[in-house]
């Protein structure tokens, strides 16, 4: 019982700095999408909003090809198969995840969607957060780059975001002392009281720098923000410190990133900065998901969703990531799960 | 037959930027230094001048305590034991290396000087270059940080300096394609014709940036200079690239280092910047020296000394490092080896 038309949101123009009202444009199209033999038609239920999406709309992209003008905006999401090509094995009604984009319906190669089996006690939306790319980023960043040891001082920036909130909790599980950096007192309270951070710092506080200096030497820094906070942490590195560069949200809207001043400390402290992309660890996703699922079900990994309703809200919601307007995982609800 | 007086050079004032005529001051003192039971008196023959010495005279030092105002300037050197305390095992006449400072005579704890046995075919001065901290820095930087593999593209900056010149040659030995960056056409010629660099770039050339871009994606960068060249290389990283931060000579005179703009490429390229200090690998020095000695004796590792005569020339000679006035290893000849 699919509708006659569907909506999608395409890239209309490339913003110089912050996302503008003219950056995206909504389109309504007839729903005449027919899956080929190896394709499925997916009705999108949820969309994930992530900082890296800002890089997709640059002329010169980051690790992925830029979204072209007029193309559907790229994003991960959840959905349900509503029609399946003759050579596919996904049944109609199957819950799936994939890079569906900002659209109510997406025609996808069956090989490019992942079927999802929700563990008892979890919910589908967890596959956009703790069990999705956010949780996996926290997991592999700490595991592959940071080599975090019990008793070490771990700093996590963007700590109230989707990746940061998981990184804080995995850090506590690993026996580290966890210092969280976030952008409001409410977020700091949540990090300390709900997520177990030993101390949370509001970087918008006028005393932030002097407060943070009291942390002393940092062993591991899980960085989601880049910019000034990265530069500050560089001035407080312990010997052999490791910095995992997961993201640099403070810089994504900048046409020219603010330069790092304090990198010479990497020499005297024999320290490293290393970037990573979790796609490189895809073979290990099942093991990681198993551990993350365990934490989710036993309550040792908690989270919070910031839910925005309606596809057409996606552009303004995306800006929340850069203004610090969300706590936890920012998602857009596109539709209820269709009854098939 | 020691003289009645000796000269030394002490720190007189801390420079803001470049080293000034008032930064150091020469002193003449009576040579009444008597070694205690566990000490030796060393007559200094050669002094090594190194970029890191700029950090020793900052108020806030790098990896070592700053030299205090009025103290002898710290430097490594070679010398000969001219008097030995009753509980030392170094015979008078023994060739030694150590942190003697800018002085004609130094009273040293015997445990803090290294006896040197010059291999047949080598000379004492090699212990300030290929077999000294310069050669060891090149060796351990490449071995411990870079994990250089045959066929990879290696870039070395400060390539005509003491560390860089060895790094280029070890890179060739490891099977890499070596791109050298130096500050004059003469240096580039030397690197290409004598040291085997596949291509050398003069960073003072007006077409340097466009020329260097033709190198394409860089697998390993052995960085001695920091600053703009580091930022340029950051924009040309291959996936999984490794940058060994050995030094940042372009920034040592700066009160505020120039910021790195292009560090976000570390994420998309899954790359790292890592600093190192060779003192962490002291246990492996003998093995490294054995390999370096082999290269020195079979001619596969060459070098060039830039010799300045006379202790009193040390301050102005030190500035050569920062103006690019030296090719190869910069040393000061303080005295002939005493006949004892």
UniProtKB/TrEMBL annotation, chains A, B:
Enumerate the InterPro entries for this protein. ADH-like_C (IPR013149), ADH_N_2 (IPR041694), ER (IPR020843), GroES-like_sf (IPR011032), MDR_fam (IPR045010), NAD(P)-bd_dom_sf (IPR036291)
One Pfam family hit: ADH_N_2
Looking up SMART domains in the UniProt record yields: PKS_ER (SM00829)
Enoyl reductase (ER) domain ranges (all copies): 17-332
Recorded hits in Gene3D superfamilies, A to Z, give: Medium-chain alcohol dehydrogenases, catalytic domain, NAD(P)-binding Rossmann-like Domain
Query: Which branch of life, at top level?
Result: Eukaryota
Question: Is 4Fe-4S a UniProt keyword of this protein?
Answer: no
UniProtKB keywords: Oxidoreductase
CDD domains named among the record's database cross-references: PGDH (cd05288)
Record-annotated membrane-spanning stretches? none
Any GO MF annotation of the entry = oxidoreductase activity, acting on the CH-CH group of donors, NAD or NADP as acceptor
Q: What is this protein called?
A: Alcohol dehydrogenase
- Provide the species name: Mycena metata
